[in-house]
Amino acid sequence: MDPDLVAAVLAGGEKVCILQILDDHSRLDVGTYAASSENGEETWAALQQAFAGYGAPVRVLTDNGLAFSGKHRGGVVETASAS
């Protein structure tokens, strides 16, 4: 599995982090979840839901994102918007 996070703004202005979990071999989307921020607790909950639906993977591949690095920032990372 290969989880990835991206910041987004909903129509009502609420900032969320979208977590997409892909099967690294087939590229099947085994879960897409909206979280309040990029943090380990919500990422782990999303992974557990994916595991419940598709079974636990042999390995989970991650980058050094905040949810996986042990660093705490407490909110959605601001990104420049494309105009």
UniProtKB/TrEMBL annotation:
GO terms for biological process: DNA integration. It comes from the Bacteria. InterPro entries: Integrase_cat-core, RNaseH-like_sf, RNaseH_sf. Pfam families: rve (PF00665). GO terms for molecular function: nucleic acid binding. Residues 10-71 form the Integrase catalytic domain. Coiled coil: none annotated. SUPFAM superfamilies: Ribonuclease H-like (SSF53098). This is Integrase core domain-containing protein. It comes from Saccharopolyspora shandongensis.
